[in-house]
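Title: Comparing notes on inverse folding

I've been comparing how different people in this forum approach sequence design from structure. To keep things fair, I'm posting one structure and asking everyone to reply with a full sequence. Here's the target:
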């Protein structure tokens, strides 16, 4: 069931239906919490969908929620590069540049070759200088 909801969320996201995507991803996380699924596969699915929620919120310009969902991912996986990246992007969008830089530097430390993180950090450093 959770896989089906996740796929529905992915499809909705790809078509720009962020409200439907968010609903689908949240269904997965709530189902896995409520059903007390404690397998590694269930935990990974939950973390993935929490990260997808962070992405949807960021794309919807709800940056506070994007940070909150990225933090939920990081509670389960402190070095999740996507969550650190998304958190950094959301902080930057809110003008909280020092927090953005901190998140992006942690992401880069976890995955030094990540060109997306490198580009975002470079862009952020230019903003800081201005």
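Reply #1:
Here's my take.
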């Amino acid at each position: 069931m959770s896989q089906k909801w996740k796929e529905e969320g992915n499809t909705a996201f790809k078509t720009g239906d962020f409200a439907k995507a968010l609903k689908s991803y949240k269904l997965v996380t709530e189902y896995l919490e409520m059903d007390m699924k404690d397998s590694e596969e269930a935990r990974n699915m939950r973390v993935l969908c929490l990260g997808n929620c962070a992405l949807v919120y960021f794309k919807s310009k709800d940056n506070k929620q994007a940070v909150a969902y990225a933090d939920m991912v990081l509670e389960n996986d402190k070095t999740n590069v996507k969550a650190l990246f998304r958190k950094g992007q959301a902080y930057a969008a809110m003008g909280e540049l020092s927090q953005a830089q901190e998140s992006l530097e942690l992401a880069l430390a976890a995955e030094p070759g990540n060109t997306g993180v490198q580009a975002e950090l470079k862009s952020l450093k230019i903003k800081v200088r201005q």
